[in-house]
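Bumping with the actual sequence this time:
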Amino acid sequence: MGRTLDVDKHREKSQQILDAAWRCFVRDGFRGASTTDICREAKISPGHLYHYFPSKEAIVEALIEKSLQSIASHFDGIAQEEDVIQSLLSKVHEGFGKPYRPNMLLNIEMLAEASRNPSIAKILQRYTQRMRSLLADRLRDGQERGQVDRQLDPDLAATILIGLVDGVRGMAIKDPSLDTAKTVELLKSLMTRLVAPEASKNAPSDQPKKRVLNVR
């Protein structure tokens, strides 16, 4: 019983340190935030910090690992739903419902760190492959059920969908005045058009169609 409590306390304290590090990294970046900053934010001594994490790089790796695990869990959730497209759209809506600007800042820091740190790059690549594989498998399920366009390459479609969502999320940094609600609705519409079967794409809409001029 005592050992279990020790493990729980260690896990809890590690999470407190990671939470403090996350705040520092969002504020100052992976390179800008020092271990002194993290200790001050976590209200611990450097010696106490190194008992849990031997270096700042270890903190970065643990934080990225945890962040990517959280993202991957969203993709795992898609596999539990009956309707492929609706489950995908619901996860997109959930992702934008959170304070995603700080998370996007951290994602940008991940990419920057991965470009110069091979160990971080491997972590990022491993989880990206996992997410793409999970989503591609879900799209294949949808193709078998007739919910997803059978002409699509599931792996390529998964890559594009992930890139599309990441790109839109990044606009929070480039344009803070962006109307998030309208942006998410348009994003969901575009994603539906990309993966839905042709019959669904061509189905009559309740909304009047706009006339499209054929310019030569």
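The tokens above came from a reply further down the thread. The longest helix spans residues 2-32.
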